[in-house]
Each structure stands twice: as C-alpha cells, then as structure tokens.
Amino acid sequence: MRILVVGSGGREHALVWKIAQSKLCDKIFCAPGNGGINQLAECLDIKAGDIFGLLEFARKEKIDLTVVGPEAALSLGIVDEFEKAGLKIFGPNKQAANLEASKVFSKELMAKYKVPAADFKIFDNPDTAKKYIEKIGAPCVVKADGLAAGKGVVVAKTASEAINAVTSIMQDKIFGDAGKKIIIEECLTGQEASILVITDSKEVIALASAQDHKRVFDNDEGENTGGMGAYSPAPIVTPDILKEIMQKIIYRTIDGLAKEGIAYRGVLYAGVMLTKDGPKTLEFNVRFGDPETEAILPRLKSDLVEIMLAASVGKLSKIRTLEWDSRACVCVVCASRGYPGNYPKDKEIGGLDEAAKLNDVVVFHAGTKKSGNKILTSGGRVLGVTALGSTIKDAINQAYRAVEKINFEGMHYRKDIGRKALK
Ligand code: AMP
Ligand code: GLY
Question: Could you say which ligand is closest to the alpha carbon of residue 7?
C-alpha cells in the first residue's frame, strides 16, 4: 500500500515509524513532514492545511490510505473531500470534527447525552459573561469556542483573571472568530488521563491509556503547552475506571453523535479528569494526541495500518483485540527555550545518533528540519525522546539517559516526566 501521512510533528513521526513496520505498507509519503520523518518517508512540499493540494497528490499518486495528524485539516473537511473522490482516509469528517473544533457543540452534545463533564454556561456577550463571573467567583475555567492551537483555555484562580480572559478572547479577539462565543465552566480537580480509542462509529477499540504533562515547567508549573511529555500506561486508569470511562464517556458520545446523524470514524481522544465523583470529560480531540501517541505506539504490537484501514471503511469489527507490549513507555519532549511563547530557530541539534543507539530508545522528531548533513531546530517542541522499560521507572531512566546525549542551544525539558506514575 501507498500511505500518505498529513502533518509534521512528533505525533506524525511516531505514526510514520509505526506504519513503516506494517507488512501492508510499501511506501510512505508525509506532507510536509520534518527532519526525522524524511528518513522513513518521502516528504512533500504540501502544507497540512492545503486539503486540495493533498487531494490532487493522493489522486495522482494513487494513495491507498491517508492518515491525518492535525485537527485543522480535519475541521476543514479533508475527510469529506477525500471520500467524495473515492479515496480512503482515516479520520472524522467535518461535522464529527466539530467535537474538537467547537467547544459549544461538544458541551451541548455531552449535556444532551449525559456524558459526565463540568457544569457550564455559554456566552456570546462579554458583559453578560463578566457579570456571571462576578456572581460565581473563582476558580472557574474560561474557554474559547473554536480552535486556538491549544491556548484557548484559561483555568482562572481569581475572578479578575477570568474577567481578563473574557476581555482578551471576546473583545481583543486574540483568537479571532474562535472567540466569538465562550464557555465558562466549573473548575474540576483530580488527576488527568488521556483515553484514545479507534472507532468506525459502530465498534470501538481502546488504545493503551496515557498521561500528558501540559505545563511547561516541573511540578506542573508555568504556562499550558501542547504537552511536554507523556507516559503509557497511566496506572491511575485501573480496569474499573477504564470501564467507567468507556461506558459513560466514550460510548455515550459516539452513540450520541450517531443519533445526531454523525458517524464518527477515526481516533477519538477524551481528556478526562478523575474527580472524586468519578471521571469527567475535560475535552475531546478528534485525532491522535501529541505527545501521547509517541508513548502509546511503541507499545502497540498489532499492525496499525490494518486497524486504521478497517476503521476507515467501517469494518473495525474485523479487528478482534489489540496486542500490547507489557513494558512501559515514556516520552520526554525537548523544547526550544521560550516555548510556548517566542523561541529561536535553526539551532543545530547534536547527539541524535548517540541517543538512538541506546537500547529501547527512539527519538521522534517534532520541530526539526534537515539542512545539508545537519538537523536544525524549527519549532517549539523539537524532539520526543522516547524509551521503553520493564517498569515506568526503568523507562523514565532510559529516556533521560537518551536526553542527556542530546544538545542544542536553549534546549529545555521537564525533569519530572512520569514521576506521577511512581506515586
Ligand atoms: P483543553 O484545551 O480543553 O484540553 O484544556 C487544557 C487543560 O486545561 C486541560 O488539560 C486541563 O488541565 C485544564 N482544564 C480544562 N477544563 C478544565 C476544567 N473544567 N477544570 C479544570 N481544569 C480544566
Ligand atoms: N497532548 C494534548 C493534545 O494532543 O492535545
């Protein structure tokens, strides 16, 4: 099969790496890819959001399966366009992608189908929103309705912080139209976990659990990022808790969508808070998580291409169960200093080969590019340094051994990835 992967991050490198191991795969293309992906795939000069450019390429090159990484392409309707052209593609269509692209859509769906989540109210007027905040006080959470590159959520400790968030989102319009409506919701407390499933809207197969580290600094301090590291499995997600999440969150959502006439196909990712009243949904993503994917896929023994292909044509029932490596996996993100704000680029990365030589280590590239014989930084999250170990502790130690081999000017990484799992 000829397979096209859309995207350019660590998640896409992990997908390409796993797809390359499939007996079904003959050739991989990646649009646009990065400095690590190009060792396994032919990288294309087509942007992930250029859905008609991608369509033209897929048609011309007779691509058998396209796998979409980022949410933006999904919410632009890449799946609808490919399916119209008779091409197989793994991911939800535009309507289904609203689960991530519109928090209002997602919250209303959850309320209608009794999916446990934080209590909320929707606002389209900043003055009314601010009055409401004065009434309920803090803590509370302010969320922009639309896509905001992972920055659209403010967990406010004080009322004035929440009011400032309303001003920036609705009046200063820092996210443009994505902030026309906002949600103000109850602040939940507990541990977070990421539950990813693959579904064709009838069958659902859970992937291994994972936990992300969203804040930029150790001990969950500093700003929210796309994710600074992940580990799998998340021991906090016991079999009983997983069962509850599947029943109350995953099935109710997929069945609820089906009742609305929306067949969800692809990966569904639920960000869940394990509260003292049980698991509650924080958000849905309509794609693989990043860096969760880097920590999950090295543990998957089954053929991912077979699974994605089956899901994309509504035949997931052909896949019985997935086989997993019982070892733990830890991914430590090496970022450019300054991320998630401004950061320098084009810094040479050293030590990649030394790191990759270590046992059970794979270095996924995120924001890198090849320049001559050198690999340079080109993004905020630069690498996902990943290791397997017989215990979480072993995997942590091995991942950090690999991180120590790597260097670039301004390299920043958290020193406590996975530590929560040891408690
Ligand atoms: P999201 O972009 O919706 O994933 O939110 C980003 C992060 O904000 C989540 O991973 C949580 O840490 C936090 N968050 C979102 N909603 C809530 C909530 N209702 N209560 C507490 N924290 C939240
Ligand atoms: N790691 C969080 C996300 O993929 O959105």
Answer: 2
